[in-house]
Amino acid sequence: MGSRRIIPSLLLPAVMTLLLPRTAGSQQHTPVSSETQTCIDCHEQYTPGIVADWRASRHAHSTPREALTRSALERRVSSITIPSSLEAVAVGCYECHSQNAKAHKDNFEHFGFSISIIVSPGDCKTCHATEVEQYSTGKKAFALDILQKNPVYQALVGTTLTTRAVHGDRLTPGNASTTAKNEACYACHGTRVEVVGAATMNTEAGELTVPKLSNWPNQGVGRINPDGTSGACTSCHPRHSFAIEIARKPATCGQCHLEPDVPAYNVYKESKHGNIEESVERHWTWDSVPWTVGKDFTAPTCATCHNSLLVNPAGGVIAERSHDFGARTWIRIFGLVYAHPQPASGKTFEIRNDDGLPLPTTFAGKPASTFLISSEDQAKRKELMKKVCGACHSSSWTSGHFTEFDSTISETNAMTLAATQIIGRAWEKKMADRSNPFDEAIEQMWVRQWLFYANSVRYGSAMAGPDYTAFKNGWWELTNNLQKMHETVKAGKRP
Fold first, then answer.
1. CB 385 within 8 A of CB 330
2. pLDDT tens, position by position, 328-348
3. How many CA atoms does the CB half-sphere of 176 hold within 13 Å?
4. Which of 56, 80, 109, 348 is most buried by its number of CB atoms within 10 A?
5. Does a structural domain hold residue 196?
6. In a domain, 457, yes or no
7. pLDDT tens across 353-388, in order?
8. H/E segment holding residue 341
9. Can you give the residue range of the structural domain that contains 151?
């Protein structure tokens, strides 16, 4: 595989000890495998940032055996059994990059070791089985399939990611490059990463031959990996620190959940919760497990409401941890076309409404109830979210907030219905061709109505961001856009 350097660590004993204090001032040390020590010796020279991140991580300062001794609430390792070869050493480079080698098409021989480029959920499952199982059933794990296997979404993405060229008075469509697509929708939703041969690279460590990967790099939540698994744990727990602190901070969710279509992070920052977090978060304890309300933090973040294990100061559980990020939400406010009950399965591309379309509601707003959670499940999830809110707020405050939010859902759906009725008349008048409902000006006004403006109002209402409910892509734009649609179709002219 080209020129190679002989790394002195290859001559070291089978297991070495890397002197890493577990906590500041501690004299305890965590043993490191000889294979990981070999990785460190080389990569500390050539990719020191990676090694520094790992050295600061919990993986470097604890062994799985030690992790399993913690109480059930404190435990971060959920697998019942862990391979004996991993129990007594720090979770290092080799322990992660050598797992399930036979399943990894990106596995290759690297200085005498069998190494995979991508560490997938299938590898993390070795220690974190429950988390991976929960994640694998949610919408995030199927985020790429949701785009590619639903012809309606596929048409929206294809129309959006299509180049245009002016020829006289016509716009001629072309095709955006794969790179452009990977840096747009697929950056968050994920790509299908496949091995497409081998590549010889000239690096500071010499000439190396490695697997050549398509659609890489990518850290999208629904990425399909070379071992066939879906998802990327590093979307939220970035390598190589994998810090729970980073995963819990709002900016992590803000990588993807941004205006105009999913303005959760923007709304959070202008909310009272976001104001408190930004003002005093330096005093919070971000990495505690469980996370104690009122002790470790004093205002919710995205993780507080949607997935963290929360307890009260007496240790009573408020909400169990879940890596299915829709498990606590009863309504899907980001809908195509209406807000609707949460899907029963993360495979939303399997939904068929009464019109036979792969949408959770008909254009008239009737839910595809067979594919959505029941009214009983909705009630249970709503009560759980009220319980989370109730850890800080009085029952009257919480009840009032949810009543207002329910009203917002109903009213924004009504505004979407009005826009949908108008676009229906436009199709009847041949002002637009409904074969692709996203490529003409009047149709794009309709899309903005539900994808940007109705969503903004709902996120603003749910998370107490008043400007996003009112003027910033809120009610003002929702009303103004509907008026423009009405006047355009009434005039009978293409906009």
1. yes
2. 999 999 978 999 999 999 999
3. 16
4. 348
5. yes
6. no
7. 999 999 999 999 999 999 999 999 999 999 999 999
8. strand 340-341
9. 128-231
